[in-house]
Amino acid sequence: MNDFWKDKTVLITGLTGFIGCWLAEKLLERGAKVIGFDLSETGALPLHPGLAEKITFIKGSILDQPALETAFKTHGVSVCFHLAGQSMIEVGEAAASHTFDVNARGTWTVLEAARATGVDRIVASSSNTVYGEQTQFPTTEDAPLNGDHPYAASKVCTDVIVRSYGKTLKMNAVACRQTNTYGGGDYHLTHVVTSTILSLLKGEQPVIKSDGTPTKAYLYVEDTVEGYIRLAEEAHHDGVRGEAFNITCESVSVLELVKTIIEVSGQAIEPKVIGTAATTRHDLEHLSMEKSKNVVNWHYRFPLKDGLQKTFEWYKNNMSLVEQFGRDTTH
Fold first, then answer.
1. What CATH fold (topology level) applies to the domain 185-217+250-283+302-325?
2. Is 330 helix (H, G, I), strand (E, B) or coil?
3. What is the mean pLDDT of each successive set of 10 residues along the chain, which is 331 residues long?
4. Taking the model in full, what pTM does it have?
């Protein structure tokens, strides 16, 4: 581990989200000073006891450029991780304009504020959904951005905005196309990994809402966070500035995923499959890992079974926190 982060001041928009809290923990371990900028003062933060006391929290909107500029200038921020956004698929359908406003306008607002105040590096959260329907696998970063759902399209906007600031305006800005991330401290209790673990801990049969065939990548949260960190460390290099990177792993079917969770739990139980055959255009994902490995030297460290074991143990040991602060939301 190098000393890149020692005494650096880092601002994380959306810090109180699932990934934001883990990112804050890992940056603090490296000696960084962490500023959180978020609308919410809770989110996943209560699931990380002691974290709130180690950071500086600023309540604010990513649509408020003056507030962002004040935060950047006041604290001498050198690196910004832009994780804030509207991340719910269902909300994207019900409130498309809001989703575009937060995810697209919010991105250029953060970048403009960073540009005005001399923030050195910005890593913005893009998404595996930007690819939409693909026919060539594994999907590389130069594949067409076919995301046509409002949420996916808003992330395409995020991605392209970051590219323009990096390529034309010469900012050290990078887009992180992260895949589905799981791990302890996910307060969205209906996410497939979390809901399956909670069912098993309650002695209940896990339920698969599809027919079990949708195939996607599931990446352990510490690996996702390390991807963000590596992108920030390398953002100033040609070949990284203004680029997008898949932060991902091998794909598995939902049925394989759930059966692996059951295996690590040590229980002998079969999942209940209640859905019909998969029909949506997002049910097959195989993303390439080569660019991240070759250009920024990132590769995941936790195979699926190992990550799920760590996640299962986290929920087993923190059920009282989950029952108090978890949210019964849909993914």
1. UDP-galactose 4-epimerase; domain 1 (3.90.25)
2. coil
3. 90 98 98 97 94 98 98 98 86 84 97 98 97 94 95 96 98 98 95 97 94 96 98 98 98 98 96 76 87 98 98 97 81 37
4. 0.96
